[in-house]
């Protein structure tokens, strides 16, 4: 009896342990609730209006029912493709610079600038791109929308890339340098590759964040009721379409706005999942 | 075939701290030379100067003359990348590339230097893994398993194979067995013994028994200076310097 008592965990400790575990579970559930609530609500409100016409047709004139947001879906894809072409290389490139070469005052300046840029309201970025791209070009365009979103992607990707590269142990770099592999090759083929899982996560976060942005597109992509695949013309985007339909006076447009929001979320989740699956394929047993 | 190393007046610094004072040493070709000494004596710095790895540390630099065979390591116009390609290095902690397969690890030095011949790469990978006495254990998992999935001792032999695949003249080993268990250690020591047929080996160790077992020549470092350098047997039986004797008899360090 006496010997087993010594090994028994005291009641107070058990209560503290279970209390802490319960708190952690509760916190995790609370975090999930808003996400699930939004998704379920969107599903309830939006699924009824999602049909083939919605996915394949352009909007009908005000007053007529039917039509869809096909041009918005394609427009969002187009703008995001432009944003990625700008944001991914610049973001990853500056992240590499910060991690591998930027351990000094100039690096600190860039780091600070990136953090400030991250905090700039998205509408301000929209206005800046309006005056820098739209005004000289003399019209709204998919290109300018892509530039605005691309700029917004850069700081997130840069800082994520930097953090992930700094987590690569220095002995891995030394191994590569010791083999007579040049520094730039070591950075690209060894350090970046070792950090790739984290860098990809950072890129997907940045992508998902800008995919639903509306404000920076108001003065740049502008929106369009018709098909447009030209980069230098005003272009529809799902987020813009949802915005203008939601504030319209028509019930049918309200329903379509819900459907558009649902499609937007589904597309973002699908894109992130697709990247995750395709990059985790080919990973080796025991690899990190 | 290995080549000899001639070191004359080698000094090294970390910032303003001098870590090596005017080292002179002649390393014989196709022999194993051990570098011993207490922690912080400069023995790791010394071998890292031989292949110009020392200068990859911020604010570190080295001066002096190091000749590896015909190659003037610190000569004008000498390219550190080329130097490191010809002088292989094995580090204290096994450091395989975690995202690469076993094959990918061994082939990394070839592939990332632009070597594209698949068949020759296959041959070099197999030859290097055999030289590193790892082939039999991994030949069926070459492309399936990550280098990081191997045991610590296997990882270190993988790192040795990786260094050998680029066909260096000299192999530097910086305490290659200090993170390994006794069985893995004896495997590495056996391997070092085999390797000297093809390479000149310089091994840093703070295990004196290891130096006595594997090396023909031994240099004793203390506070950045080479105190004594001679045949291993001489160093461990009748050292000329009092400080060497104190160290090997365990009076300090």
Write the layout of secondary structure elements.
The complex is a heterodimer of chains A (288) and B (253).
Chain A lengths: L1 H6 L3 H36 L5 H5 L13 H32 L3 H15 L2 H16 L4 H25 L3 H9 L4 H12 L1 H16 L3 H4 L19 H9 L4 H30 L8
Helix pairs in contact in A: 2-13, 4-7, 4-10, 4-12, 5-7, 6-7, 7-10, 8-9, 10-13, 12-13
Chain B lengths: L4 E10 L2 E11 L4 E5 L6 H8 L9 E9 L2 E2 L7 H7 E4 L11 H10 L6 H14 L3 H4 L13 H14 L4 E5 L7 H14 L4 E5 L3 H7 L2 E6 L2 E7 H6 L4 H7 L5
Parallel strand pairs in B: 3-8, 3-9, 6-7, 7-8
Antiparallel strand pairs in B: 1-2, 1-4, 4-5, 9-10
Helix pairs in contact in B: 3-4, 3-6, 4-6, 6-7
Helix content of chain A: over 70%
Share of residues in helices of chain B: 25-40%
Order of helices and strands of chain B: EEEHEEHEHHHHEHEHEEHH
CATH superfamily of one domain in chain A: MetI-like
How many angstroms separate the termini of chain B?
36 Å
* Largest interface, C-beta within 8 A: A-B, 26 and 35 residues
- Structural class, judged by helices and strands of chain A? mainly alpha
The CATH architecture of one domain in chain B can be named as: 3-Layer(aba) Sandwich
Q: How far apart are the first and last residues' alpha carbons of chain A, in Å?
A: 48 Å
Write down the secondary-structure element order of chain A: HHHHHHHHHHHHH
> How are the strands ordered across the major sheet of chain B?
6-7-8-3-9-10
Rg value of chain A:
24 Å
Task: Round the Cα radius of gyration of chain B to an integer and report it.
Answer: 18 Å
CATH third-tier fold name of one domain in chain B = Rossmann fold
What is the name of the CATH superfamily of one domain in chain B? P-loop containing nucleotide triphosphate hydrolases
Q: Report the sheet-strand fraction of chain A.
A: under 5%
The gross shape of chain B turns out to be: globular
């Amino acid at each position: 009896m006496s010997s087993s008592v010594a090994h028994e965990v005291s009641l107070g400790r058990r209560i503290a342990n279970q209390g802490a575990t319960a708190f952690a579970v509760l916190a995790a559930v609370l975090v999930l609730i808003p996400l699930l609530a939004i998704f379920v609500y969107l599903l309830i409100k939006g699924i009824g209006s999602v049909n083939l016409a919605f996915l394949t047709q352009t909007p009908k004139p005000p007053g007529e029912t039917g039509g869809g947001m096909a041009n918005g879906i394609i427009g969002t894809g187009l703008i995001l493709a432009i944003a990625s072409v700008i944001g991914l290389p610049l973001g990853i490139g500056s992240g590499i610079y910060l991690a591998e070469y930027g351990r000094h005052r100039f690096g600190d300046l860039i780091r600070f600038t990136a953090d400030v840029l991250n905090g700039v309201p998205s509408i301000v970025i929209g206005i800046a791109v309006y005056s820098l791209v739209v005004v000289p070009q003399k019209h709204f365009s998919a290109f300018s929308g892509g530039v605005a979103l691309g700029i917004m992607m850069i700081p997130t990707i840069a800082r994520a890339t930097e953090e992930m590269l700094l987590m690569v142990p220095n002995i891995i770099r030394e191994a590569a340098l010791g083999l007579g592999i040049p520094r730039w090759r070591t950075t690209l083929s060894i350090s970046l590759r070792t950090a790739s899982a984290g860098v990809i996560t950072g890129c997907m976060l940045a992508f998902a964040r800008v995919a639903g942005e509306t404000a920076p597109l108001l003065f740049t992509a502008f929106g369009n009721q018709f098909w447009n695949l030209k980069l230098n013309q005003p272009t529809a985007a799902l987020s813009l379409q949802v915005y203008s339909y939601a504030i319209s006076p028509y019930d049918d447009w309200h329903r379509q706005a819900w459907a558009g929001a649902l499609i937007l979320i589904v597309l973002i989740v699908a894109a992130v999942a697709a990247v995750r699956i395709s990059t985790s394929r080919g990973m080796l047993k025991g690899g990190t | 075939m290995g080549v000899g190393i001639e070191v004359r007046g080698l000094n090294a610094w970390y910032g303003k701290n001098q870590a090596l004072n005017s080292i002179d040493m002649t390393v014989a070709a196709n022999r194993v030379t051990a570098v011993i000494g207490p922690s912080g004596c400069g023995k790791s710095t010394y071998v890292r100067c031989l292949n110009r790895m020392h200068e990859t540390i911020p604010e570190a630099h080295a001066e002096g003359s190091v000749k590896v065979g015909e190659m003037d390591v610190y000569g004008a116009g000498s390219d550190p990348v080329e130097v490191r390609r010809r002088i292989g290095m094995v580090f204290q902690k096994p450091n395989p590339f975690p995202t690469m397969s076993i094959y990918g690890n061994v082939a990394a030095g070839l592939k990332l230097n632009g070597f594209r011949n698949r068949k020759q790469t296959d041959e070099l990978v197999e030859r290097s893994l055999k030289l590193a006495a790892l082939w039999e254990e991994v030949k069926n998992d070459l492309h399936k398993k990550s280098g990081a999935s191997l045991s610590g001792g296997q990882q270190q032999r993988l790192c040795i194979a990786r260094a050998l695949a680029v066909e260096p003249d000299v192999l530097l080993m910086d305490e290659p067995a200090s993170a390994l268990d006794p069985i893995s250690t004896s495997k590495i020591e056996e391997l070092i013994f085999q390797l000297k047929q093809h390479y000149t080996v310089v091994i840093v160790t703070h295990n004196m028994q290891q130096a006595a077992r594997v090396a023909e020549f031994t240099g004793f470092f203390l506070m950045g200076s080479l105190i004594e350098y001679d045949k291993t047997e001489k160093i461990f039986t009748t050292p000329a310097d009092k400080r060497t004797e104190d160290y090997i008899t365990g009076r300090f360090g």
